[in-house]
Fold this protein.
Amino acid sequence: MIYDLLAAPFADYTFMRRALVACLALAIGCGPIGVFLVLRRMSLMGDALAHAVLPGAAIGFVVGGLSLPALSLGGFAAGLAVALFAGLIARVTRLREDASLAGTYLIALAAGVLIVVSQGSYVDLVHILFGTILAVDDGALLLVAGISTVTVFGLAVLYRALVIECFDPGFLRAVGASGSLVHLGFLVLAVLNLVAGFQALGTLLSLGLLLLPAAAAMFWAVALPRLILLSAAFGAVAGYVGLLASYHADLPSGPAIVLAAGAIYLVSLAAGRHGSLRARYMPRLHMAS
Amino acid sequence: MKPSTVRLLAAHPPAMKLPVIRLQDVTVSHDRRPAVHHLSGAFEAGSMTAIVGPNGAGKTTLLRAIMGLQSAEGSLAVEGARRGDLAYLPQQSELDRQFPLTVYDLVLMGHWPRAGAFRSITRPQRASACEALSAVGLEGLEDRPVGTLSAGQLQRAMFARVLVQDARVLLLDEPFNAIDMRTTANLLDIVVRWHRERRTVLCVLHDLELVRAHFPRTLLIACEPVAWGPTAEALTPANLLRARAMAERWSEDGEHRARRA
């Protein structure tokens, strides 16, 4: 019975196994990136970037159809271009970064929807917007796993400089390191993970596995290494639970996974050890635990 | 931010020559308005100078320009020093205190000039971080996140980072602002010790009593230099009055401009 509920779907169906592996790989990459997004107060920027991936994917779709490399490459280029363009506007005009980013990504999003609909169909649009993790093939799996690998190594390279840049950006510049280069490296990793996520969850929800596990981790840990591990673990659990729910209740997989991550987030928000509602309104209970 | 125009002249091996900061007609702008202008003079090797002036007088801007964090017009040269020879202690408002960094990791940042982004931290480097922490009276707090420290404790930790950097030129931006008296006394001892060790110290300060008691030289600025020399000669009532009058003039200008806009 328990076996049927928790393990059988993965034992019986190849597509479920692939989806699970993709989710776990996603969680490993997205966990740490999400933590830095939250700590750098870039959560909303992540949202804008996720939407900005769409027109690139759309152009990739026009050129290469529903092919993975075309969609991914297009999405990656568009996401990075929007981030850099918005940064440039904020630097040389009077508009601040949030407004310039919102302006840029709205244009990109609308253009993307128009391109897909005019060249394809609403069915294709739904695929791109909401993802198709249950149709993950070998190519997609390799891509997601590859991005996770690059993320872990990239973050290892950037880690020391990134931590310093977050805490005291002036120090990094004073000792002669380039804070903008560190920021750019981090942006590249963030967009890569959004592209990986959009295979599985679609452009609209790809931020879900980045942000929700990281935000949930904030309520349980203080030290950075622990935050990162916890965030990845929450992402993995959300992927597993979301896939099971999607299988048993016949739900679309993307929203089910993001809702599972959302449930972890809400529980953490209510009952976490640090700065949660419980810690604030029931401090005695908090002390006793 | 544009790349710095500060020249770090290390033509001679650093051990041979003590660093001198030389300014010739320097103007530093902030948001396209000059924050410091037409400043000429030198911070001699081994000197200890207080930088004093009204709010908005360009004190922080000047330190940042010397560090190369802000571009300057004119000639601003740190002679006989490499980048790693300069250490900068920013105001606490420049730091993200919510970031989950431990006190120990904060102090280890001071090894960046030698360890850079990739090299591992050696055992002697770890030992020197621990020594620095006990020198500022923070032993036992190594694993505390910086967000849980009081302002005074955080400033002690920042001083420990500067100690670890072991730099020959020290630029301190309001190091005793909002810090309790005991901490101020402890940290001031460290600053005085740096001076005795022939390091060059530049320190932005507000407390004139403290300046008169401990700083041999003073630069009084109000966007432009008002006085620069031995503290007793720089901090005369007439000079202070002049600096205040200049500050009042810009704040009236500012209000006037704001009303028109």
In short: Chain A touches chain B at residues 39, 157-158, 160-161, 163-164, 166-171, 173-177, 222-224, 227 (CB under 8 Å). DSSP finds 15 helices and no strands in chain A. Chain A has a mean pLDDT of 88.
